[in-house]
Amino acid sequence: MNGWTGQILRVNLTAKTFKKESFSEEFARKWVGGRGFAAKILFDELKPGIDPLGPDNKFIVALGPIAGIPAPNTGKAVVAGKSPMTGGYGDGNLGTRVAEQLRKAGYDALIVEGKAERPTMLYIEDDKVEFLPADAVWGQGTYATNDWIYAKYGKGVGVLNIGQGGENMVRYAVVRSLEGRAGGRTGIGAVMGSKLLKAVVVKGTKPIAQADPEGMKKVGHDDLRQVHQLDKQTGWSIQSTNGVLAWCNEVAALPVRNFRKTHHPDAWKVDGERLNNARIATYGCPNCTMRCGITIHDDEGRESELDYENIGLLGPNLEIFDLPQVASLNYLCDEYGIDTMSAGCVLSFYADAIDHGAVAGDYKFGDSEASKKLLGLIARREGEIGDLLAEGSLRAARKFGHGSEAYAMQVKGLDVAAYNCKFIPGMALAFGVSPIGAHHKESWVITFELKQTSRESYGPEKAKKVIELQRIRGGLFEYMVSCRFPWIELGWGLENYPKYFKLATGLDWTLDDFWTVSDRIYALMKLFWLREYPQTDRKLDYPPAVWFDPTNADTDGPIAGKHLEYDKYDGLLQHYYDIRGYDKRGIPTKATLERLGLAEEAKAAERFGSLT
Predict the structure, then answer these.
(1) Each residue of 521-535: pLDDT tens digit?
(2) Whether the model pTM is above 0.90
(3) What CATH number did the domain enclosing 86 receive?
């Protein structure tokens, strides 16, 4: 089976057993890989209502047919499970040598089940699987764990590991790899921790089966050089993702003070120019020629790798405008293995809740030292407040009460990424309908909305664009599996990906073929939500209530007095459902499911909630 190994490695930590399982070419063509494999496996194998932090959940690593091959930015893997943050389908992707090494070991996916008796490291080398004690690094952060593994096995191995946040099942704990790579902000690191799985180490020696290996090698290497040249010509890597911070501040889209404000006069102090000036090193994922990981020294001299999301949410959103201090907060999140985005939102929500009298406390916006201490309490679940904030902003708001849930900046339980949509309807919709919660990776529609359409509009063109981007960003790149940046930032054409797919698999697909797969996966993720929440309705796809609040509107700047309008947003949401072929609750109709080849999945889901 060209393009796929045709094998999945299933590991049971409870029994300390493993086995190789084959999958059919029909399965491969239907789900392709990555997110497609993960969503289908979890939908089929998890019983509804299981505890995401219990032994019945599964930790999945899934790759795609171009993952790990020598082509632009293919060093990516998807990690997935039932989300501890949302209770729905959860995943994330990260740059890691596991993408190449797991495929060379002979597998397209890894399924980890059960729970170990003691802290365990899983070592995979081709057909060999070992369950090794991880006591030496249990309780250690991700940097020390990575160093320990490299010292033992060499730097060429693929590594996934967790820090104290994962060990203590912080609901937004992530999986870490390489210098600053992290993924699974839906709490996949906590899933590993719940299984006492400290790390996965992979080494493979087999060739990756491809339809035209020589053609792939030539095209891939040529394209790597071309992408590198495009990066040099555009200068994108000079500021990397943080180049967007100044623009967000200018157009009133920056998260400031728990998203209460949309811009700030001191934002320039942490912008892309300042980040580049402080650069001491640059890191990237395997097969990357446009490296985005700008590293600077934090206030204690430690190396901290930064990008826009963590600067935006650990900086302006906490009203901290000292770049080394922001870098220190980011370093701690990475060391503890907790999501920088959720951490920034949880801390800002806590400060906001104190300001509004929902809870007593002395934590304040702008206090970087107190923020560092709180991150430690959260990672260790230490004390009442550390334990509560480790649950995420939604659960904390439900505990605090006093209307605080309205300004807990989350969707479906997952905290909002660093784009303030107080008056950006299309991007608010993208957050609302994201199938894993408020993540920007699904449909980054904000530039289309602010540069090519009217900000005032709630028209169907925005819903259509959200879907178009979901098919590409949350679809194609998530199941192939590859990084989006060459396409997004450098204009590397989408037509290159069917070309890679054909060289790998021999299948001559059009982009429309890929969009059908994307729609199929999105529909399945919706069925997963229906199964877990049978009473679900369209309110699940609404952004935070505070964005609709006229008393929270800006008093100055480009959107002074403006805010999202409830009825108009609801109409925009309906446009999205209509184009998708979903009912008024946001659930795919039977006709849509049959068109996408999901008749059997529809029958399984209908036991828990009716379909129209």
Answers:
(1) 999 999 999 999 998
(2) yes
(3) 3.60.9.10
